[in-house]
Design a protein that fits this description.
Layout (H helix, E strand, L loop, with lengths): L1 E6 L4 H12 L3 E7 L6 H5 L4 E4 L6 H11 L2 E4 L6 H11 L6 E4 L5 H13 L5 E8 L9 H16 L19 E3 L2 E7 L5 E9 L2 E9 L6 H11 L4 E4 L8
Parallel strand pairs: 1-2, 1-3, 3-4, 4-5, 5-11, 6-8
Antiparallel strand pairs: 6-9, 7-8, 9-10
Bound molecules: nicotinamide-adenine-dinucleotide and ligand LLHOTIJI.
Protein name: 4-hydroxy-tetrahydrodipicolinate reductase
GO molecular function: 4-hydroxy-tetrahydrodipicolinate reductase; NAD binding; NADP binding; oxidoreductase activity, acting on CH or CH2 groups, NAD or NADP as acceptor
Function: Catalyzes the conversion of 4-hydroxy-tetrahydrodipicolinate (HTPA) to tetrahydrodipicolinate.
């Protein structure tokens, strides 16, 4: 039995995680904490793993607190930068027995989309990412889109591919979107959506579209539970659920 605490337990994702952990025969929910609770309660309740679905402004501090408490962490919250990931990696050297998984998206379709996009990136002249989410989301672009763009950019750089062609010289309102490692990323916020992303790859006379749709937050739960089960036997920092999958 793996004992689990949930941070952000009252939120949209946290509520689903509480239910999914509660329904799993090999997991025991020992703490359901939200913003007014002390993270140390997770240790007092005997948690081996804490799942964090909080807010980008809180998640890094939560992870450092969990490491100090000797608790493995599975993190779905977005907002991570190269610098904040490095700080966690550094902190984990003090606790080499602990594992931390930080994954921008736990849905299988999204994990595969990111992999497929990176694999396809070097075969196309142009690439852009469009992410589409519910309007209650506080961050843009999405963590998934940032991770997707970085994977595409790394694959193109490794293959020596030039920047996507773009004649734009006048864009006073930012219509061309954000630029992540040279890849344009566009964010849509629309009532009715949950979490969606399209990667558009273009060549003369052809286009490849890679699309992932999470219509319901249940889509994230198998990946979260996989993370909880695996993190206890995979010390160190892992970024992206694909690192726990045999892809
Ligand atoms: N990785 C994935 O697969 C995935 C999927 C969906 C959402 N997300 C990300 O998860 C995060 C949460 O999304 P959501 O839709 O559940 O948001 P939400 O606003 O519904 O929930 C966040 C919860 O965290 C709580 N909270 C805030 N600060 C806290 C703190 N310091 N300690 C404990 N709890 C705290 C809030 O009170 C709230 O209940 C976002 O960053 C989102 O982008 C990731
Ligand atoms: O609903 C959200 O918020 C989501 N956030 C993640 C992101 O920013 O990529 C994953 C998808 C849902």
């Amino acid at each position: 039995m793996i004992t689990v605490a949930v941070l952000g337990a009252a939120g949209r994702m946290g509520t689903h995680v509480v239910n999914a952990v509660g329904a799993a025969p090999d997991l025991e929910l020992v703490a359901a904490l939200d913003h007014s609770d002390d993270v140390a309660q997770a240790a007092r309740a005997g948690a081996q793993v804490a799942v964090d679905f909080t807010v980008p402004t809180a998640t890094e501090a939560n992870v450092h607190a969990l490491i100090d408490l000797g608790i493995n962490a599975v993190v779905g919250t977005t907002g991570w930068t190269e610098e904040s990931l490095l700080r966690v990696e550094e902190h984990l050297r003090e606790r080499p027995e602990l594992g931390v998984l930080i994954a921008p998206n736990f849905a299988l379709s999204a994990v595969l989309s990111m992999r497929f996009a990176a694999a396809a990136a070097r075969y196309f002249e142009s690439v852009e990412v469009v992410e589409l989410h519910h309007p209650d989301k506080v961050d843009a672009p999405s963590g998934t889109a940032v991770h997707t763009a970085r994977g595409i950019a790394a694959a193109r750089a490794a293959a020596g591919i030039a920047a996507s062609p773009d004649a734009t010289t006048h864009d006073p309102d930012g219509a061309r979107g954000a630029v992540i490692d040279g890849v344009h990323v566009h964010a849509v916020r629309l009532r009715g959506l949950v979490a969606h992303e399209e990667v558009l790859l273009g060549n003369p006379g052809e286009q490849l579209t890679i699309r992932t749709d999470s219509f319901d937050r249940v889509s994230f739960m198998p990946g979260v539970l996989l993370g909880v089960r695996e993190v206890v036997r995979r010390p160190g920092l892992a970024v992206g659920l694909d690192s726990y999958m045999d892809l």
